[in-house]
Amino acid sequence: xxxxxxxxxxxxxxxxxxxxxxxxxxxxxxxxxxxxxxxxxxxxxxxxxxxxxxxxxxxxxxxxxxxxxxxxxxxxxxxxxxxxxxxxxxxxxxxxxxxxxxxxxxxxxxxxxxxxxxxxxxxxxxxxxxxxxxxxxxxxxxxxxxxxxxxxxxxxxxxxxxxxxxxxxxxxxxxxxxxxxxxxxxxxxxxxxxxxxxxxxxxxxxxxxxxxxxxxxxxxxxxxxxxxxxxxxxxxxxxxxxxxxxxxxxxxxxxxxxxxxxxxxxxxxxxxxxxxxxxxxxxxxxxxxxxxxxxxxxxxxxxxxxxxxxxxxxxxxxxxx
Amino acid sequence: xxxxxxxxxxxxxxxxxxxxxxxxxxxxxxxxxxxxxxxxxxxxxxxxxxxxxxxxxxxxxxxxxxxxxxxxxxxxxxxxxxxxxxxxxxxxxxxxxxxxxxxxxxxxxxxxxxxxxxxxxxxxxxxxxxxxxxxxxxxxxxxxxxxxxxxxxxxxxxxxxxxxxxxxxxxxxxxxxxxxxxxxxxxxxxxxxxxxxxxxxxxxxxxxxxxxxxxxxxxxxxxxxxxxxxxxxxxxxxxxxxxxxxxxxxxxxxxxxxxxxxxxxxxxxxxxxxxxxxxxxxxxxxxxxxxxxxxxxxxxxxxxxxxxxxxxxxxxxxxxx
Lengths: 321, 321
What we know:
The structure is a homodimer. Chain A is of the alpha+beta class. Chain A contains 11 helices and 13 strands. Chain A has a 7-stranded mixed sheet with strand order 8-10-7-11-9-12-13. A 4-stranded mixed sheet of chain A has the order 3-6-4-5. In chain A, helix 2 runs parallel beside helix 3 and helix 4 crosses helix 5 (177-188). The first copy, chain A, is globular, with a radius of gyration of 20 Å.
C-alpha cells in the first residue's frame, strides 16, 4: 500500500463531514470557511514513540491521546475545535497499527466535532504530529497572562491519576485490577475539557491545561501574569483510587509534579466565583488556592508547612522525561 | 538548554510580527484574526532526516526548504501565506543546527510575510513538520479538480534542475562548479511561486505544485478533474544548465519524473490564455500541452512518438524515494 492508499483507506474520515470544509483531504491544501467575528485558535503537538508513548502502546490509545492533547490545548483557550491536520511518520505500512490509530483518532475527533482536513504521511521513525484549529468569539480567548492578585485558583476533575497510571505501566507499582484499569485509562485516554473551557469564557481570567503537572503549568500562568500563588495541598482533588494508593502513587509529588492529567487550571475574580459550579461547567471543579502579589508558587501541606515538590514537571529534553 | 530556552532563543521570530496575530508563541495555542470574506487554506508537510534530506544537510537549507515546500502548496492554491506552526523533533539540543535551521526558516518566512505562531519541540529522531495557514478571497482557491478538455497546460520556471541537483549530491554526476552550484541550489532552495499563484486566481482552472514530478503531479490534476492530457516534451522548459548536461541529468525521465522543482503546473481555458504572460505573473511561464477528453497523460517526444517515463515520481513508502 502506498501513501495515497494509506490516506484513502485510513484517513478519509467519511463519518465526520463539516459544512464549513470546502476542500478536505486530497488537494495541495485544505480550504475551510471561517466564521466572521471570531478569532482562530491554533495548536500543534508532536508525540514521538518511546518518548511520549512506548512504541508498543495500543495504537487506538495513541490515536485517542494525539487528538486529546490538542483538544486540551484548545480547551485551555476556551476555543471550539473545528479542523485538524495530521503529520504522521511511520517505519512501514502496518495496517493493524494504522487501523487502530485512525479509529482512536476519529472516535475522539467525532466526539468533539473535529474533521481531519489534511496532512502528510511519510516513511520514518514512528511519530505523530497533530495541528488543531478552533474558534473563539473575537477577544474571548482564555490566556495564561490574565491572572491578578486575589483571583481564586480552580482545577477540574482530579489530579495525579495519570501519574499513578504511568507508574503502573512502568511496572513500578501493582494495584488491584479495577484500580490499575482506572489509572491507566486516565493516562491513555484523557478527557479534554472542551465544554468547560468554552463555558469559562468571560469568567476565567487566566487558564492552562495540566500537561506538565500543576506546579509547572500553574508556574507558566504566574510567569505570564507577573503574579504569585498560594496553593493548599489539602484542597487538591484526588480520586478515590489515588487516595487508596496515595503512598505507592508518589503522594503529593505525583499530584503536583506529574503531567498528563489534562485537567484545566484557571483563575477567577472573587466576584465571579459564584459562576464556577459543577452544574454550569458540567464537571467537578475545586478551588485550590489564591493568586498573590508575590513571586512564584507557594504550596503548603496539611500542617501549614511549605511543601517543595521533588519533581518539576515534564521537560522534553530531559532524559527521564 | 531546555525546550523553553530553545523556543525563546531560536524560534521567537522577533523580526516578523504581523498585526493580525493576537497571541503568538507562548500560550496553549496561538490566536489570530482572520479576514472576513476569505477562506482559510491549510497545508502540512513533514520532512524526515535521511528520507527527505540527508541528516548532514546544511541546516540553513533544511530551514529554507521546510518553509518553501509549504509555501509552494499555498501557491498552488492561489493563497496568500500568513501563519505557521512548527513541530520539531531533535535528537539533542544542537545549537549550531538550531541556529542555521531557524535562520533559514525565518529568512524564507520573512520573504513571504509569514509569522511563526506556535508549535512543539521535542526530543526524538530528526524530523521537521510545518503547518502553514493562508487566505484566499471566498471561492477563489485554485483546485486540482477544475481542468476541462481544451484547457491549455502551463508550467512556471524550468523543470529537471532539482533532479540534476539530486544526482550531484548523490555523487552520481560531477559538473563544472557553476553548474553544480546552480542545480544544487535549485534542489535545496526552491522558489515558491506564491505571487504567481495569487495572480492566477480567476485565470487558472486547475493548479498543482510540482513536488513529485510533472508526470505524477499532472496525473493528480487529471484524476481529480476526470480528464486526460497531451504534453509535448519538446515544449518543456529547461534551464541552460540542464540542456548542457541533458544526458548526464537523466534526460526526459528526470524532467518529467523527478520531484522537488516546486514549480506550478496549471490549466487555462483558451479564451483566457492571453492573460498568461511573464509580465503579469512575474515569472517565466511556458505552455506545454493541452487537456483532452481522454483518460490519463500522453507524452510525445520530438519525433511524435509516445514517451513512457522510467520513473513515476516520488512515493513516500517506496525505498528509493
